[in-house]
Write a structure and sequence with these properties.
This is Cellulase (Glycosyl hydrolase family 5). The protein has 370 residues and is an alpha/beta fold. 41% of the residues lie in helices and 14% in strands. The protein has a domain of 256 residues: TIM Barrel (Alpha-Beta Barrel). Strands 1-2-3-4-5-6-7-8 form an eight-stranded parallel β-barrel, surrounded by four helices. The longest helix has 21 residues.
């Protein structure tokens, strides 16, 4: 992204903040009511080596340290991805229970993002029943620790519902897949609420701009409580230039009449920039976007992506520069994957994830929430 576009992004964020300045502002709160504003972060404590998720000779960041990181940054929500079997049991059941208990002891709300298991070769009625079974089982197993549930993840992208265009019209979608996906989500929602009627549910999107899918999904499952959305800096100028959307917060609330949770946001690291430049971009985005959200009473949560750099996303040998540098916490001495000799030496160290430090966005966040 050019410097000019970056400037436009921050101008738009300032406009969002000022346009909502006359409204009642949030107070950051660690309670479990819907009146407070929550700040959180996502992570992979059940699925990534750096997060100590797997038995390995490599020592990841243990759960107690992850929780301490959240508390250092005054974050009160930990969003984590959960793969389950058809009955709703986590693939990493014992460690999930361990993390749930530790978070509850420390006043941290866990937001599980439960991957769907939709079979697109099945009948819609089967999709509904399988979604129901998955979430009813999940709620029975883990519900005593949880209040909020994120059903699926960017389904229009990862489940290939959208096949072309920007996602605003039916012609952009594979409708046979959409019909099954909406029934699966309806099943997940009704399965969850059959066990936990007071649970708060949400469905997210990749953020640009799958409103046809979201319209269909909310029509099929109208009891879903929250509109979740993913936002990255390059999206805001395009919302304005392509669709005339000046304020994404107002647009989403006006369309869906539900509280808004931004369950992923950050500035993507760029390989053509220095480490310091990427840190500065992430810091500026975090600060500006959060300020705009704090000023809008319909935005109830911002969850940053993500806690730790993830050099092993897609496999240790797979290069993914963004994921390798997405964290609010970085691994000191990580050489990247272009220098093969340096990378080989780094990956041979079983303690390679023990030398870490906070990035600027995190250090500022510690002060920001005082």
């Amino acid at each position: 992204m050019s410097d000019r576009i970056i400037a436009v992004v921050f101008l738009l964020l300032a406009t969002l903040h000022l346009s909502a300045a006359g409204e009642k502002s949030h107070k950051i709160s660690a309670d479990t009511t819907d009146t407070g504003f929550r700040l959180g972060i996502s992570g992979h404590p059940l699925s990534a080596v750096a997060y100590n998720a797997n038995s390995s000779t490599v020592r990841g960041i243990n759960y107690d340290t992850q929780i301490r990181m959240l508390k250092d940054m005054r974050l009160t929500v930990y969003r984590m991805d959960v793969y389950t079997n058809p009955a709703g049991k986590s693939r990493n059941h014992t460690m999930f229970l361990e993390m749930l208990a530790k978070c509850r002891e420390n006043g941290i709300t866990v937001l599980p993002m439960i991957y769907d298991r939709c079979r697109y070769d099945a009948a819609p009625r089967d999709a509904y029943q399988e979604g129901f079974t998955q979430m009813a089982g999940f709620a029975r197993l883990y519900g005593k620790y949880l209040s909020y549930f994120e059903l699926g993840n960017e389904m229009e992208l990862f489940d290939k519902l959208r096949v072309s265009g920007d996602g605003r019209s039916e012609k952009n979608y594979d409708m046979q897949r959409v019909i099954r996906a909406e029934q699966y989500i309806k099943g997940m929602e009704e399965g969850l609420k059959s066990v936990m009627p007071d649970a708060k549910s949400m469905v997210n999107t990749a953020g640009f701009l799958p409103v046809f899918w979201m319209d269909r999904m909310f029509a099929a499952a109208p009891t879903i409580d929250i509109c979740a959305w993913h936002v990255y800096p390059e999206m805001l100028p395009l919302y304005k230039s392509r669709f005339g959307i000046e304020n994404i917060h107002a647009y989403l609330y006006d369309r869906y009449k539900r509280p808004i949770w931004y369950t992923e946001t950050n500035s993507r690291a760029r390989k053509d920039l220095t480490a310091a430049q990427n840190e500065e971009r992430s810091y500026k985005w975090r600060k500006a976007f959060t300020s705009g959200c704090l000023a809008d009473p319909n935005v109830k949560a911002v969850i940053y992506h993500e806690l730790l750099d993830n050099p092993e996303r897609g496999g240790l040998e797979h290069a993914n520069y963004e994921e390798e540098h997405f964290g609010f916490v970085k691994f000191n001495g990580y050489p990247g994957k272009d220098d093969k000799a340096a990378f080989k030496a780094w990956k041979a160290m079983p303690d390679r994830y023990q030398n870490w430090s906070y990035r600027k966005a995190a250090l500022d966040l510690i002060e920001f929430t005082d």
